[in-house]
């Protein structure tokens, strides 16, 4: 799929729209040029300058359609994916600020209302090339222009009815998604259902925030309208991958209703007195259980639609090398994210490939040296994230009655039986032994095996050595890892080292929604509607089986100190939440999940720690070391600040509480 953007800034007849005041008075025909950092954004020829021309023929209207697509945030770029860097899941070194970005500064408590970081309200750069105006309100304006023109049967006369219907459905989805994205950040937002006429009084251009429930219902209705118009699958895989389909729209509706049913937006007393300028309560403080019922139904519809067109949990089956079962399980986990367009990816973001602009995969993997894998990069997982993964028995390390992790710093030498996870004979911390496959699939660590394609049939060829004096230690690199855990999950296993020609990296469209995500959302909704739901456990077990784990009931009954935990709603909720944090780790979900569960105040006030990266021996390296003390202010930090400039200039806007 090629996505085109308008290059001319010539004023045309049309409409206005405003976020705050005349400062943002935007003329509908005033198209902003965008700069692409990949091949998916091309510029429309300069002779296409008016809206009349834009919707005179199918070819020109299609370019405008792709303009609407171009506002999709580039979540495949870690510099701009809020969920990846703004929480506590991925950390950057304090000793080198080269790779610090606005999201990471939010993680360190630097968000502010004078100049909000990653400000989607006024607009921030979604692409690394810079210079692009990508605020989502501008995207909504473009969507409204498109819909008004293409819904008019007198426009684009060479457009067939079927194609016209599909295109309208696509842009209705995009309009819903941009509203959803803003709602998730800011809570109550303005609803931009139509652009304001150019000759309207300036007061008409002022927008005001609508109650959360009204926003949710509006987005849901818009998605319903799009779902009725969208195809089940794209018509041409080669040219249209990433275009919106019915399963994608149903999946977004599922995510919308689960978010709306969750504690942040459902009966949140923290915002009970928060009103708009019209005097309306922006948060309903009364819990509404019917939202979970709607979430349950939306999740099931999304799953049925996705499975109906062939989506399934990804499993690594192409095995020309005779790999061990352990290796294949771990490849299944990794490739569910990094295998382009694999069957598990319900929505792949073709507007954002990981990693085509700033080559962050280089930071994740380093280069080969004497068959050992040096420091895989500055993206690091805090020790608490390493502790989050289950034991090999499929239960939390603090609950396992078979394995004792109390002395997790204790040293131990890897045996041959552990050779697919840790280099035989290597001495590492007790925390790195007896863990589930997702721990080894997701994390690289000192002594840990890192299987790659150029290892051929030798599953254990590459392993990390990252103490201070090692080839992969801090003095050997310009930027080093301060926690001792590296984000292996996001690196395609087909990345290949080359001594002479450099290293090649497997790029892939960012997986916005995987089928595993939908299974976990459905399990969550089921448990809220039907406490301790056995069907919820069925969907958890599908994901656990792919990870090589026994089912919930078997694992907790046989190995947990809380053997009946799954038999209560609260217990199963805790299991579902942790399963979700593990399965979707490092994909940008944890940040938003902690918020909607109202768990951020608990988790983001914990210290960031890691191993002592300056240690030269196992005894000095494997000491938990304090790195940073995070601070999360509740309820303020649950919502983004709109910003002082906008609230000053638009008397109808109110700032979020605490900002």
Describe the model.
Residues 377-659 form the RagB/SusD domain. Belongs to the SusD family. Helix 15 (515-529) runs antiparallel to helix 18 (569-583). The protein is built from 22 helices and 13 strands. It is 34% helix and 8% strand. By secondary structure, the chain is mostly helical. It has helices at residues 51-54, 58-69, 82-85, 102-107, 136-150, 161-186, 212-227, 237-240, 246-261, 290-308, 325-338, 360-365, 383-388, 437-442, 515-529, 534-546, 552-559, 569-583, 590-596, 600-603, 618-621, 644-649, and strands at residues 3-5, 15-17, 26-27, 41-43, 196-197, 345-354, 411-413, 427-429, 443-445, 485-487, 508-514, 607-610, 625-629. Strands 3-2-5 form a three-stranded antiparallel β-sheet, with no helix packed on it. A two-stranded parallel ribbon has the order 1-4. The chain has a two-stranded antiparallel sheet with strand order 6-11. Residues 1-49, 125-133 and 356-376 have low confidence and may be disordered. The longest helix is centred in the N-terminal third of the chain and has 26 residues, at 161-186. The two termini are 41 Å apart.
